[in-house]
Here is the input.
Amino acid sequence: MKNKPTIKTTGRYRLQHRGVDCLNCGHPLNLSDKFCPNCSQANSTKKLTLLDFFEEFFSNYFSYDSKLWQTLAALLLKPGKITREYIAGKRLSYTNPFRFLLSLSIVYFLIISFNSEFESLNKYGSSNKIPTFDITKQLNTYEFENEEEKKAAMAAIDSIKLQEFIGDMISKKDSTILSNPKKYFKEIKDDGLFNRYGSKIKFFSTLIKKDTIYSLDESVIKYDITPNLENEMTFNLAKSLVEIEERPGTFFNSLISKLPFATFFFLPFFSFFVWMVYIRKKYTYTDHLIFSFHNQSLLFILLIVSNLINSVFNIGSEGLFLLIFTIYLYKAMRNFYQQGRVKTIIKYTLLNSIFFILGGIAITILIAASVFTY
Ligand SMILES: [Zn+2]
Here is the structure.
């Protein structure tokens, strides 16, 4: 009995301190009861000394701790076994799968928020554009080996010039908006919802970028725009898009930090498909869900470890850990569902395909929602 507190008969656990009613729940007790059979509080009427108080704190801490270590060990060393044991009724030895996953996702969330490794992507944002110099002039002074090389270099320059030309066109459009915003906004044609929204988003993002407008109210006063729902929506969207364009890394970080919590909406949905694929097995939907929670927990553990290794050794170890996870997942499915290799491989492939399709849809929704609320 690893998880029961060790039965002590010294100190406040001595016979002389025992009562006939549980002080916690009132359950009648015998003097031979060291613990209440109803709520498992120690049968002791002795007042807590400071030492008792600390002892109780640490014994609770270690009993949770040993549960935690057992869960971790079982999860890491015996793929699939922990779920089998848990749903078969061996529950007190392990941490509740939902609480376990929640704790891990919080830890993972804190680590990635702390690391914010995508912040470096901000250098690709428009707020960090390097001023261009006249490349043609530079090349004229350069001695080419042969004509071929010169041609290739010139072709490359032409494509750069095309980009500059497009850039000019865009800034020309910007200047038509900026020369008379009031007039431009009034003339936005009502040719379909998408075109109208597109034009308004373009209009607002130009104003936000070039005219440093911070809220719709400002543009209402300055350019006498009607403050209706459509204008508000397009304004907020334009503002998010400008924000993302200028600092893509920050947006990516905020997106990634939502992922740990998005799994709680995603897994119940995905488990439904697992249930369908294993419909002939005698497992309930909840059993499949617990299996998904355990696997997801392991994935978080691997990602946390990978993150720590990355920041200590300054390397990228995600690929290796994801490879470990794909092997683990196969082992876990074999052990949990107890089917042959071929059947397991087929179902593994099928479920992974479903996972990635659903994941793609979920991420699209998440990105859309993030843009709207950014
Ligand atoms: Zn009790």
User: Anything to note?
Assistant: Residues 22, 24-25, 27, 36, 38-39, 41 surround zinc ion (CB under 6 Å). The chain has a mean pLDDT of 81. Residues 129-177 form one domain. The chain has four domains: 11-75, 97-120+253-373, 129-177, 180-246.
